[in-house]
Request: fold
Amino acid sequence: MDDQDVHPQTPDTVERLLHEILVEIRTPLTAIKYYSHILREVENANLTDEQRKYVHIISQNTEGVLAIYNDVFNRWMELHKKSREE
Reply:
């Protein structure tokens, strides 16, 4: 493997790579967010207090990571739009 294989050289390659990374991150985060929401909201979940605490932590942390994701995605979209306009 040479440097070209490790370091993408074209803007299109970088763009595709970033898009794939963003998709691969978003999909499991969305699942974690909604499953933790279900566990928090379902009264018959039979969770212990400690389990509820962990579900709450998972929920909060997922929201934090999704906020970072959204920020990166929005910046990527702005750059993508600007590069297409040029």
